[in-house]
Amino acid sequence: MAGSSSPISTEGSSPSKEETFSSNKIIVYVPLHVSGFWKPALTGDPLRSGSVGAGIALDLYTRAVGRLGDCSIFLNGVRVMEEHSSLICAREGVNVVLKTESPVGLGKGFAVSGALSLSQSIASSLLSKGVIGEASSWSAHIAEVVNGTGLGDVIAQFYGGFVIRIKPGPPGIGSVISIKSFKPSLIVAELPGSESTKAMLSRVDSKTYSTAEESLRRVHENPSLEVFFEEANRFTRRIFDYSAADEIVRGARGVIGFYVKKKAFIAWVEDEWAMDLLEALSSRGLKAFKTTISSRGAWYVHTAEPS
């Protein structure tokens, strides 16, 4: 395919450089993201709402092809998230049809809704204005907050890496520490079932969120994977069923740390034992992957070629 690729952002702590071009097709890649702990911060303004916390952007990406057309989002061939797409198209002033492939589904805890929203927001900005910058993510963040499907995923996915969210909001308004130098061997799996973010948030009480504040303080003071996995496990055990995850880990060797977010299972494993755990998960009929922390955030390819 003729064309060129460009990162949207390389560092979470500094604004991205705006880029311009013309194209009739945008291909956007967005990393999946699994939060380890979080605390909502909701105001009357979606741009200044979101959450603080920390999570991992994985080296697993959704791939979305965006074109001018009917305002819509398709995931693996099925039309989804119509309220999100309508809001994004209205804000961007352009109708874009987005056809996306994802290794995992919605409602599993991998921030697929954030990835789809961000992909459409980026494609819309590029196709309508021919320009990309941090503000190109704002429509996605607003759609996620308004629809209650994600509060801190968009900013984490935009920048990538091991992301510590210290101020709520989208890129350019919120503030994060994005660390891309860690390259652990991670085994991730999609456990059976699903749960909406709204349902999940309705089960979390203020006492649980107070532990998230403690976790954020500890990780901010010592931004290591050891501390993150410890705090993520401690926080999410208060919310999710760990019976399947504990059973998996009991029979595994080399597991350094693990946690569960909804139906997303994330394990940090010594590299020599990683494939053993992957095979064990696959033998259970689970969709599982060997991956690491992403070294980049969302990025795109533009081309004038037809599919």
Q: Layout of helices and strands, plus pairs?
A:
Layout: E1 4-7, E2 19-20, E3 25-41, E4 50-68, E5 72-75, E6 78-80, H1 82-92, E7 96-101, H2 112-129, E8 131-132, H3 138-147, H4 153-159, E9 162-167, E10 175-179, E11 186-190, H5 197-202, H6 206-221, H7 225-236, H8 243-250, E12 255-261, E13 264-269, H9 271-283, E14 287-291, E15 299-303
Parallel strand pairs: 5-7
Antiparallel strand pairs: 1-15, 2-8, 3-4, 3-15, 4-7, 4-9, 5-6, 9-10, 11-13, 11-14, 12-13
User: Which structural class do you get from the secondary structure elements?
Assistant: alpha+beta
Could you name the ranges where pLDDT drops below 50 across 5 or more consecutive residues? 1-22
The first-level CATH class of the largest domain is given as Alpha Beta
- Strand proportion: 25-35%
Average pLDDT over all residues: 91
What is the subunit organization of this protein? single chain
Order of helices and strands: EEEEEEHEHEHHEEEHHHHEEHEE
Principal-axes geometry comes out as globular
Characterize this entry briefly.
Helix 2 (about 110-130) crosses helix 4 (about 155-160) and helix 6 (about 205-220) packs antiparallel against helix 7 (about 225-235).
Walk me through what this model shows.
With 307 residues, the chain is an alpha+beta fold. It folds into two domains: 19-179 and 296-303, Ribosomal Protein S5, domain 2, CATH 3.30.230.10; 186-291, GHMP kinase, C-terminal domain (Alpha-Beta Plaits, 2-Layer Sandwich). Helix content is 33%, strand content 31%. The protein has nine helices and 15 strands. The strands form three sheets. Strands 1, 3, 4, 5, 6, 7, 9, 10 and 15 form a nine-stranded mixed beta sheet that branches. The protein has a four-stranded antiparallel beta sheet with strand order 12-13-11-14. A two-stranded antiparallel sheet has the order 2-8. A hairpin with a 2-residue loop joins β12 and β13 (264-269). The relative contact order is 0.21.
